[in-house]
Amino acid sequence: MSQKWVLSLALMLISSMLLIFVPVRSVTAEPVRVYVHPSLVVDPSVLFNVSVKIDNAENLAGAQFTLTWNPLLLRAINMTEVMLHETTPQTEWDNIFILRHYIDNVAGEAEYAYHHRDLGRAEQEGYLPISGNHTIATILFQVIGMGNCSLHLDEVKLPTPEANPIPHDTIDGFFSNNVPPPPLPPSPVDSAQVLIRVDPRRVRNESVAINDDFTVAIDLDSISSHLGVIWIRFSLEWNSTLLDCIGVTEVMFHEVLPESEWQNIDWGFSIDNGLGEVWCEGTFQNIPAEEYGDYAISGNHTLAVLTFRVKNVGRCGLHLYDCMPIEYSPGRPGQMLYTTIDGYFANTLNGDLNSDNMVNLFDALQFAQSYGAYWNGFRWNEEADINGDQQVDILDAIFLGKLFGHTR
Known about the structure:
Layout: H1 3-21, E1 33-37, E2 40-42, E3 47-60, E4 62-68, E5 74-81, H2 83-87, E6 96-104, E7 109-116, H3 119-125, E8 130-143, E9 148-157, E10 169-171, E11 173-176, E12 194-199, E13 202-204, E14 213-222, E15 229-237, E16 243-250, H4 252-256, E17 265-272, E18 277-284, H5 292-295, E19 301-310, E20 315-327, E21 334-335, E22 338-341, E23 343-346, H6 361-370, H7 394-403
Parallel strand pairs: 1-10, 2-11, 12-22, 13-23
Antiparallel strand pairs: 1-3, 3-8, 4-7, 4-9, 5-8, 6-7, 9-11, 12-14, 14-19, 15-18, 15-20, 16-19, 17-18, 20-21, 20-23
């Protein structure tokens, strides 16, 4: 064996040992951060700027945030969008969609939400998705009082082009000229005992065709302490040109009572598809008054399941009304305090807010009017909540951008 060959073999063995014993360093992606810069503003001049920045962005399709402050100390003069105008060629700026660009100096908040109106066009032209470190927006403040407050980032959403939220960390800023902030007011307390609700609250599916069936449950949830329900009534109404109710099945009483006691259930209902309403009532029968306490129902239960048949294409509410839960008491039964949550049905084209069977600029403009709304709150539009999470935000806007141009 030649000396040269032996040397080559030895080098190969040494290399193999190094591969075995030298640890491989794992590469960990840096977390995505959204933060206020500078993080600390102390004794500034009358005017100063802060920026909302993002680091380590990857596969980003837009951004949403709310920045809040103490309006007794600071007044926002203006907010300047930066990120999308820097990453988008100037010839494509007409594709930048201003969902929310709003300053409220009474409440002390600035709301920002931008993305591209036509996501397909942005991806084709190569300026989407966005990655790297960027200034999202810059806000110019005027100092109007003495004190200190946080510059608090809230409602931060970072969507991908597929409308998935990107996990991220947020870091607030702080303003100070050395006076303690006032305490926060106490939050109100709900006094209702039970919640009567349609479940699922929302049946939103454009593929539900005429003559298809679907079901919803009417649920009864205990939301504060009580002695138990011994009698319940509710009515539900809907658009009679769109739906027919074809069946009602009682659940709660049959679940909580053993089968040997089912003869003591008194349950009845009435369906009127001409008016679009159903009435249901349930209680116990042939029970001595002193034994009602053994039958009283508490906790969370499904009262009944309603089956509907679709007659047309459209949208309507499933409205609960004329409800009356009665509570057991050793003396005299009494009506309980309750609250209700209605349901919603739609089989129209998803993203078609104005019902013209296409998703276009008119829907985008109507969507912008509801941007930032929460379910059942001011400016709420059920159709603008495209992903069904009970708020209208940047994720819905991305979905709308993906649906742009669809027709029925």
